[in-house]
Design a protein that fits this description.
Mean pLDDT: 78
Structural class: alpha+beta
Largest sheet: 7 strands, mixed
CATH superfamily: PRC-barrel domain
Oligomer: single chain
Number of strands: 7
Strand content: 25-35%
CATH architecture: Roll
Number of helices: 3
Distance between the termini: 34 Å
Order of helices and strands: HEEEHHEEEE
Number of domains: 1
Low-confidence stretches: 1-8
Radius of gyration: 15 Å
CATH class: Mainly Beta
Shape: globular
CATH topology: SH3 type barrels
Length: 116
């Protein structure tokens, strides 16, 4: 099961967005900035969690990068896209992934998520 509602208890997205995410060793890997989901019938199925600086930019506003002044600012151009299977939602105050940070792959944001 991979929906937020099918976790052992209901999880309210607004309560977990922006929280730090830690790995198996307790090291912070970033903040949960976005949750990707697909609609299937009358269900919403979580596919992945986006963690890291590019995910934050993606969440805040893509139009910021289009403004001339903000084009000059160096934005980190990577994020972690963590499959739902690796994300632990049992304790929403202490978000964790089921692997070490070094096992996660940093990826550039998809074109269209924001203007690089």
């Amino acid at each position: 099961m991979n929906t937020l509602a099918s976790a052992p208890h209901d999880v309210h997205v607004e309560r977990i967005l922006g929280r730090r995410v830690r790995d198996l060793d307790g090291k912070v890997i970033g903040r949960l900035e976005e949750i990707a989901a697909e609609v299937s019938g009358d269900s919403c199925i979580v596919t992945e969690f986006h963690v890291g600086p590019a995910a934050a930019l993606e969440r805040i506003a893509s139009f910021v990068r289009q403004l001339p002044l903000f084009r000059l600012l160096p934005f980190a151009n990577w994020e972690y896209r963590i499959p739902w299977q690796l994300f632990e939602l049992a304790n929403t105050h202490d978000l964790r992934v089921r692997c070490r940070r070094g096992e996660l792959q940093r990826v550039p944001p998809r074109r269209g998520d924001f203007i690089p």
